[in-house]
Protein: Tryptophan--tRNA ligase
Amino acid sequence: RQRVLTGITTTGTPHLGNYVGAIEPAIAASRDEATESFYFLADYHALVKCEDPERVQRSTLEIAATWLALGLDTGRAVFYRQSDVPEIPELTWLLSCVTAKGLMNRAHAYKAAVDDNRDAGEEPDQGITMGLFSYPVLMAADILMFNAHRVPVGKDQIQHLEMARDIAQRFNHRYGEHFVAPEAIIDEHVATLPGTDGRKMSKSYDNIIPLWLPEKKLRKAIMKIKTNSLEPGEPKDPDTASVYAIYAAFAGPEQRQAMRAAFADGIAWGEVKQQLFELVNAQLAAPRERYEALMADPARVEDELRRGAKKARAISRPLMDRLRAAVGIRALG
Ligand code: TYM
Structure:
């Protein structure tokens, strides 16, 4: 069976971008009989970006509850916390030993950090940790540990997937065919959801719309999305409007068509936002109640994660045994 795998970093509250870019398509994929799904909470990755233990813990609960509230069937999918699978950091080390440093030098996130330092007149590596630098190796280990064929992600993760393929090939070349080369799966419609300021919706830009805002606050957040100053009656361009991009990610093809026509007819921004709110709220109202129930019962969430870790380790343990043998640090028992 084809294996599908994806993860979310536990550094904040889940937002609309995570939902349309990752969680929703992943849950849909998990319903396909022909696939085996692996979805996880990337809590080791969280430590690269977040130094606040309470926040990491809270985010882990929130993101876990999100997957469950949105209807992930944990009987079929393997749903786990990265840190519950100790073979993942172990594999990270084996992979580090075949990964070219030059490859990591080219990682977008690392390069951006170096550029920021240069712009600020600092030393290039000022404040940059080994965690940030080797982030893509940990991510490769997440994927290769379960030999995932397909990895549904947002566009921002494409380079990480390319690196994972490169690392898999190097390992295979040196030690034999242990890994499949994973492929990124990107839904072109929702490739990058913009945030309230028009840039990519991201925790780091402070422009997110949290997924589980109560109705009134959700409406308020949507009303705050930036638009241009065109008046009602003036034709508007859907392809440059964040409100339309978000609308399109939630709407079906007919609704999209109708909204494009309304833009051409000069619909008022306030009206677009009202319709966007109604669309999003209708999809989220029922899962929101389940989410709130789960947040009030963390033991149930924990229980799901423990069961998931058991299933994950039934796969990661024997593979790790084979890999240790392959590199020569153990005989195959
Ligand atoms: P993270 O936690 O930043 O984001 C989780 C997923 O949500 C997608 N996403 C978006 N999609 C569309 N529009 C947006 N505005 C938006 N913001 C976020 C991301 O592309 C991602 O798919 N490194 C990963 C986590 C990770 C991972 C993995 C993913 C760790 N190991 C292994 C796949 C496989 C990350 O930081 O995603």
About this structure: The two ends are 27 Å apart (CA to CA). The beta strands are 2-9, 35-42, 78-81, 150-152, 183-185. The longest helix spans residues 298-327.
